From TrEMBL:
Belongs to the peptidase C48 family. GO terms for biological process: proteolysis. This is Ubiquitin-like protease family profile domain-containing protein. InterPro entries: Papain-like_cys_pep_sf, Peptidase_C48_C. One of its GO terms (molecular function) is peptidase activity. It holds the Pfam family Peptidase_C48. Transmembrane segments: none annotated. Keywords: Hydrolase, Protease. It comes from Eruca vesicaria subsp. sativa. PROSITE patterns: ULP_PROTEASE. Residues 10-208 form the Ubiquitin-like protease family profile domain.
Amino acid sequence: MEWCMNPIAVKIGPSFFNLAVATRIICSPEWLGNEEMNSIMFIWRVNTSFKRWTPTHVAFMPSIFCLQMDTEFNKFVPNKKTYELHEFLISYGRGELPAHGRTDQVWGVDVDRLYFPQFVNVNHWIAVCINIIERKVEVFDCNRGRNRQYVEKFAALIPRIVKAVAPPESKKQLLVSPYSIVDVPMKARLNKSCADCGAYALKHLQCHLLGLDLGLVNDEIIQGCRQKIAVDLWETTFS
């Protein structure tokens, strides 16, 4: 209550928690923005690094990662045989990026799964899990849309990054062929507000991460989920 009366912006990793962000999270039908998505990824990254929760061998990517992958994929497609990975992609694979919450955990060695939300079609959030061990890209979309065009960059480039950062003794065994793309089944008629996709994306990632049933998240509880996201950010900010 005191903070609401005097809402001072507070930094969380690369983003800020302020009244505008809090209002956007809590007040449906408002779309979640990059600030809150990045903040949640940062919190999860820190929780994993300090072993504050059970999941291990996982990494969480910021929204800029998707944009950078877009740029590199556009360079890769016309020159697949001669394309060379940009150094910043290798830095991601080594856990040197993102700089906020740097882990130094190597993909394919210390990290088996990558988690992140992705903004698609200029108006919708989906969730993505890249399973390095099983060589697949899992897509979680509360609208049950077709998203192959938005995630094929990960299927093509992630195996190349994993091979580039692998220990010398295991490089020869690693393939650079694209990962498979899997659309995770969803219930029909979710996100009736058309504005809760961001909350669904975060909660689907969390359910998958913790081994919970995705069916637990539905329109009846999504407003409560939004409030929990805001509370998690607030507690991290002021704890």
